[in-house]
Amino acid sequence: MAEFQVVVADPEDGATYQFDIEGQDANRFIGRDLGDEVDGTAVGLDGYTIELTGGSDNAGRPMRADVAGQNLKALLLTGGVGYKPTVEGERKRVTVRGREIGEETRQINAKIVERGSQSIEELLGLGGDDDE
């Protein structure tokens, strides 16, 4: 059974929210590609829409949007996701995972693209109590 940690970023205020999902909610993400939009109900954000922006597998290997499928691939990289060169022109062979979310994916990164009628704090029951 699929089990993910979904990290949702809020571009408006820079906050991030982490959700551990499993079962039916996790199955909504299986087979999706980076860049796809998903209903936020899967992570408890009713009325919101989130866009999948990245992720990593159980071993910490990053997902790359330019690699098809969900399998591992060894790429010769000059920079970008998975490798940051220290010298100009430096290249390195790095193992990365494809853009499709599968059973081996552990973490999914996403950002909010459409907001619902309620605030995130209201939906998640965070703070907001000024009368204490």
TrEMBL record:
Q: Which keywords does this chain's UniProt record carry?
A: Ribonucleoprotein, Ribosomal protein
Under the heading InterPro entries, the entry gives: Ribosomal_eS6, Ribosomal_eS6_arc, Ribosomal_eS6_CS
Q: Name one Pfam family in it.
A: Ribosomal_S6e
- GO CC annotations? ribonucleoprotein complex; ribosome
Q: Where is the signal peptide?
A: none
Keyword check for Transit peptide, yes or no.
no
GO BP annotations, alphabetical order: translation
Family assignment from sequence similarity:
Belongs to the eukaryotic ribosomal protein eS6 family.
Q: Can you say what this protein is called? A: Small ribosomal subunit protein eS6
